[in-house]
Structures are given as structure tokens and as C-alpha cells.
Amino acid sequence: MKVLIGVDPPWRVYHNLLSEEAGSSETREARITMTETSQAAPPILDPHMVRLFPTLAPAQLARVAPHGQTRRVESGAVLIEPGDTNRPVFVVVTGSLEIVRVLPSPAREELVTVLGPGQFTGEANLLSGRRGSVRIRAVESGEVIEIDREHLLALVQTDSTVGDVLLRAFILRRVELIARGIGDVVLVGSNHCAATLRIKEFLTRNGHPYAYVDLDVTTDMQDLLDHWHITIADVPVLICRGDKVLRNPKNPEIAKCLGFNDAIDRTHVRDVVVLGAGPAGLAAALCAASEGLDVLVLESNAPGGQAGSSSKIENYLGFPTGISGQDLADRAYTQAQKFGAQVMIARAVSNLECARRPFTVEVDDGTRVSAKVVIIATGAEYRKLDLDSASQFEGAGLYHAATHMEAQLCRNEEVIVVGGGNSAGQAAVFLAEIAKRVTVMVRAKGLAESMSRYLIHRIENHPSIELKTRTEIVGLEGNGHLENVRWRDNASGDTESKAVRHVFVMTGAVPNTGWLKSCLALDPKGFIKTGPDLSREELETAAWPLSRAPHLLETSLPGVFAIGDVRGGNFKRVAPAVGEGSIAIAFIHQVLQE
User: Fold this and answer.
1) Which segments of the chain belong to CATH 3.50.50.60?
2) How far apart are CA 421 and CA 571, in angstroms?
3) Could you tell me the pLDDT band of residue 49, with boundaries at 50, 70 and 90?
4) Which of 135, 418, 449, 509 has the fewest CB atoms below 10 angstroms from its CB?
């Protein structure tokens, strides 16, 4: 096993290759590094490489062979190019393969590793059918087993021993790429820019590795900017796959450039279409796919929903020390794909045609998807501050998530967390370990109404957290970025103002049901009514056509279910949302038989 290690972050390699000095060099050592801070990463130790690139035993190779096609490869033959779609996995039987990164300069490559007999190519994005970012080439002539995506999924599902080896390696490789910023994307931006934060969050939550250039701290990037004709007005800029520059792109544009949804067939009728990939939607997709149903999930942003932006979830079964919302979402997303569920990213539903079956779901890009059953799991959004000035500070001092990305922006500063639910409590405790001081503001007289007891105890006993009850923000000020916050004590009527640059708002919930256009019965707050909550009058108004009553999570339209935070009477916790997603599939089997 041969791995070349260097010390330059990918963006600097990218920059150097555009300079005369790099152009005159005949060879370069591979540089596999980097975190978001653009600092060099330590060399990868051999035990770690063994976990990344395990070797299958001869008996395991024999079990793999029936799932693929054995073929001869000659030295120098290129098996996969960067950007290829529908990539297979290659398992080396004899000979060797090398994996190289192709840098944006003619004939420039970085060697990642060389694979020998028993080792295999691939990483987690194979499960979703996304494009590859490396070149795979035969070093020595020999034989390989070529396994396409369909047969790979069958192998992972039916052979737990070999499947676990493959899946574990795929996941670890993807984690390594993300941690070291090695991918086909370079983001050029500023941490003080709301759009930069949005793009970083989108790439991170979708598990896509990227290199980041912070123009506020990097001073030697003019050659790179000039090469791509980038001006300050263009920032943030995404250099996509080394050949396309996206200037302040929206999330769907990024997803399209990176080919997030290229492998998804949108033409045939699905058994189930799930609208939303939060915990409820992913649980439904996983259960349905594992039971042999053809499942497509439509997600407007990234898997995980509101829970995906949580710094730590401690009251979910099976994780006694807690798990971050991002990690939980990543695991659920991979698990659903393992069983064949497909997830369309950065595509939101715009309409549901209710009049006929199969149902037709309209997507915001004009696509129409057909399904026998629809599960609505579009969730809810945090309420915005009712202030005219709030919109100008979104992402520039005003946030609705408290992840490590936001935390980096307020290290050793004072912050305010608005809200009395679990999300606000988790954010306060998390930020208190990073910020100078955290002030929690609620309009109620205390936290006991909506927050778990363990979080209340932590807030009350943390020396860096101050609780202000019966208090609300009444003013925000700043020039481009939040600089000052004014709040009012509703008990006394007194107001106070302080220089605070970061406010985290996690209050209430507004259901994502505006796109339904009166298709289903809703409660007065806009949440979808289901099962026994539907009155006889509402079913008569909806012209319920069946002799049976709606199933537990079924809406006023037969064959359409609602789960998670979008459903009226939901419990606003991750565990119940996952439970609802699982329960819905039991009823869906009955509906499909009707």
C-alpha cells in the first residue's frame, strides 16, 4: 500500500498549479490534507489507512464474485474518470489499481493510494449514484470484479458480513474526504457573508467535501481570483468540478452542478413518495425501502430537517452520550439508501394533485413525479422575529441553527438564544462552551412548559448562561452585520440595549403546508389533521370516498399520510417523529392492497 502525503491544503495546491513555479515542476507529491481553517493535517497513520482500505479475504472475494463481472484490465487502462456517473465498484483480484485526484492543470495528478488484491474502490456517494471526483487506473495488468450500483446494493442488503465491510469503508472514506476538504469543490467566501454560511451549511449537511478559502484571512489568492475573473462583488463563489464558476449560487444550482440528482429516474410511478427528509421522512423511507417498496424522497435542502441542525440530541434511544443531529441524519440517510431509497436533494414540492390516483407531485423545477401513496413530512420552520429589521441580518448575526459552523463565528463573544424548547436549550448549552456568555430569552415565566428537565437543570446550573424570562427582543441594529440588540422586560416594561453580534432564534413552529392549496384538512394553525382528529364534517367536506375511517396517520385524502412536525398534534421530538415514519408504512401496505 502506497500513499503520498503532503502538507498543502487543496486550495493552495489549486493556487500553486496556476503559478509559473508549479507549472515548471515535473512531479509533485500528493497533498491530502486540510480542515476548514486551511491548516495542514497530520499524516495518515497506517492503521487508519487499513480501516479506509480493508482487504477482503479469499472466501469473501468468492462471495463477491457472483454479484459482478470479472474482467481483464491492462496496465494504464483508465476505469473511471472524474465526473463519471453510474460508477461501478472495482474489486481487485490480481494486479493493482491506483486512485488519483485530477488537479485543474494539464497532466497534474495527486496519488491517493494504490489498491492491491482483495481491496476495492468506491465511497458513500456510490449509494446515491452521484458523480465521482477521482480517476481510477490500472497500474499492473490483472483481473477485477466490476459491480454496478444495482448489484452493489443487492450485495450490501443480502450479505451482511461482506456488505458491512464495504459499507463501513465507504462511510469512513467519505468522512475522511469531508474532514480533509478533498473534493471537487472550492468555495471562496467570507465568514461574515450570509450567503457563504448558507453554502457551507448546504454542502456540509449534504455530506459533500469542499475546500474553503476565507478571503478575510487569506492574502495570496489574487492569481486564483484573476484566473477565474472573480471580483469581490461575485463572492461567494463556488468553483465546481474545476471547470465551472458559480457566483453566489442558490442551493438548487449547486446541486445541479454537482450532479446530486443525476441518477434519479423521475418518470416511473413509485410505490411511495416521501415529501421531506427529516427524521420522520427518513424513517418512513428506510422502512418502506427495506420492505421492498419503490421509494423516492423529495428534500428541499438537506437530510435531517430541524433535527439535523441540532448540536446534540441526548434523549434518543440507543445513544447514551448523545449524538449530533448531523450525525444522526447522515446515518439515517445512508441506511435508507442502503435499502434502495432514492433522495432528490434541493428540490421542494410545489403542488399535490389530489383529484386522481396515482397521485402527481409537482416539484419546483417543473418535474412531475407519480406515486401510489404520498407521505407528507415537510416539517415546520422556526418563527421569525417580528421585526422589520430582522430580514437584513439573516445569516449575518441572526441564525436558526447552532452547529459548529455558527459556533466558530461567535467564539468568546456574547450571544443570545431566543426560545424555550429543546432546540433552544441544546443550543444554549452547546454555545456556552464556546461563547463568552449566553443569554436565554423566553416570553413565558419559565422553561418548564416546553423544555426537557435535564436541559433546564443544565441551563440553571451553568455559570456562563443567564436566563431572562418574560423578555423579548424589540430591536436589532447594525451595518451589514448585527451589532446591537435591544430587548424589553414585559413584566416591568423596562428596555435594555447591549452590543451583541449573534442571536439564535428557535421559537415556535410554522408548518410547511402553504403549497397544499386547500388540498387537505388543516387545523387553525395550518398543521395537517390526521386519523381520529378528522371530524365527520371535515371528511364530508373532503368527500371521503371509503367506508372505512382514515388510518391513524392518514389525512382527509385516502392514500396521503402526514408525519412528524407538519402533522397536527405532533410531539416535537425526534423519537416520536421516527416512530410515526415507521408506523405509517404499516398502514401504507394496507392502502396499497385496497
Assistant:
1) 270-381+510-593, 390-505
2) 12
3) confident
4) 449
